[in-house]
Amino acid sequence: MHLVFMKRFINLTGIGFFIFALALASQLVYAGIPHTPPFKIRARSAVLINAVSGQMIFEQNPDEIIQPASLSKLMTLYLVFEAIDNGYVSISDQVRISNKAWKTGGSKMFLEVDTSVSLETLIEGIVVVSANDSCVAVAEYIAGVEEVFAEKMNKNASAIGMTNTVFKNSSGLPHDEQYTTARDMALLAYHYMKYHPEVLKFHSIKEMTFNNITQRSRNGLLWLDYGVDGLKTGWLSSAGFHIIATAYRNGDRFIAVVMGDKGETQRENTALKLLNYGFRNFKTIQVFPAEKPLAKVSIWKGTKGEASLGVSQAAFITIPRDDKGDVYIEKDFPEKIFAPVAKNHEIGQLRIFFNNKLIKTSPLVSLEPIERAGFLKRIVHGIILFFILPPYWGTAIVLLSFIIFLFVYVVALKNKKRKMTFLI
């Protein structure tokens, strides 16, 4: 009660701020929670995730170690588009073809040594015909040496949470120390498309012609009318047939990762089976839009008395179409923070539950910058905090001072009474 009065008084003087309290949980009702599907596939491992929410819908041996083959090229492309976005290179740059790139074996677009090819054409070669020579060319263009580029691939893999992956080259050609998992590849594909959605215009190309040689995409699903518009295939005799397939239907998108299947047709059929399972049994719902105020937090020593909290990116969940259930939200953040506060500074967490099971967390961030207040306001707030924050030194000092004063007063009063009695 005293705190409310003090803060109201400070506001009246123009140097205070409001007290705001908010419940940390709210209720929403949607459908239920994804469950274990009643089927298995023949491939060694597989994962199905929703590309909007990032939720895993299906998994089968998702952490089995396996050589990535040409799926490695997805990380190569990721780094190429990162370099373009950061202005380090331009998609129209002319790339000189080295002897090493020209000599690289396996699938290729038949680059010629000492010629110059646009970076855009090299990207198309990597995507459409899985060109190993093009991978080496772009790796050398961005990092100077392919081995250095491979180090960058591993750093980026670690940064996005690929905990069971090691890259040793830019193309996926066999290497004893190169490995990954279906879970990690699904994570890579999710981040790749999330931060570089423009890549799909390349991945949906069905064939390309270079040096008068026409080659078809290795992804046979592009010729089927199922909304498939990517993403990458791979094969090694020791690992089997891989595919990362993504499709867009009715405003939703899924990513299927199939690794170690028995043949090209089998991997495509398996991927399509997983995609169909996702689209027909699940739907994706936006829980909260981006940058919508969801809570308020008190700000001390700032130009404003409170900050709005929300999510910097819209929060989506993927749920079964026919499973009725509850979704509820918990917001966890401190009662107060201190200025300055930058926009999008993480202050708490938003937790989304399905039928009492946590399925997603998103950071609660400040939706606005709060500058540090002037000297006088900071002094006043500092004095108040001296009294109301543990270990409550201000309150303790005042209380102790009062006790000492009372003791001295009582002693003085007793001495006065004794003196008067003596005089009588």
Beta-strand residue fraction: 25-35%
How would you characterize the largest beta sheet? 7 strands, mixed
Shape: elongated
Secondary-structure-based class equals alpha+beta
Main sheet: which strands, in order across? 1-15-17-18-13-12-16
Specify Rg, calculated over alpha carbons.
31 Å
The assigned CATH architecture of the largest domain is 3-Layer(aba) Sandwich
How far apart are the first and last residues' alpha carbons, in Å?
A: 50 Å
Protein architecture, described:
There is one protein chain. The protein has 424 residues and is α+β, with helices and mostly antiparallel strands. The protein folds into 3 domains: 97 residues, D-Ala-D-Ala carboxypeptidase, C-terminal domain (Peptidoglycan synthesis regulatory factor (PBP3), Domain 2, Sandwich), CATH 2.60.410; 158 residues, 3-Layer(aba) Sandwich (Beta-lactamase), CATH 3.40.710; 49 residues. Helices cover 35% and strands 27% of the residues. It contains 11 helices and 18 strands. The strands form 5 sheets. The chain has a 7-stranded mixed beta sheet with strand order 1-15-17-18-13-12-16, with no helix packed on it. Strands 3-2-10-9-8 form a 5-stranded antiparallel beta sheet, with helices on both faces. A two-stranded antiparallel sheet has the order 4-5. Helix 2 runs parallel beside helix 5 and helix 10 crosses helix 11. It is elongated and about 120 Å long. 38% of the residues are buried. The N terminus is likely disordered.
